[in-house]
Design brief:
This protein is mostly helical. It has a domain of about 55 residues. It is built from 4 helices and 2 strands. The chain has a two-stranded antiparallel sheet. Helix 2 packs across helix 4 and helix 3 crosses helix 4.
């Protein structure tokens, strides 16, 4: 889907929409927190509008960004650490 069709009929420019969606997804903010951040920057965006943007654009962003992320594996290792407790090694 092209960018012009993706943001058609929106009242805000795409950069504002994408920034709000990114803030919500990246920094685990609430919708009201994002609303407050936009108000601090001189924009009036309601939290329900941010909710609709996240529902509409977060899956698209995930799909487009996923290919650029490095793959991770399911295995991980933990180093063993020995600690002396009351002069006894454990």
């Amino acid at each position: 889907m092209s960018k012009s069709r993706l943001f058609k009929w929106r009242h805000f420019v795409p950069t504002i929409i994408l920034r709000c969606v990114r803030w919500y997804c990246r920094y685990s903010l609430s919708y009201r927190d994002v609303e407050e951040l936009t108000q601090e920057r001189g924009l009036r965006v309601d939290h329900s509008t941010v909710f609709r943007w996240v529902q509409a654009y977060a899956p698209q962003l995930d799909k487009r960004c996923r290919r650029y992320l490095r793959p991770t594996s399911d295995s991980w290792r933990v180093d063993e650490v020995y600690v002396k407790v009351k002069a006894q090694g454990r």
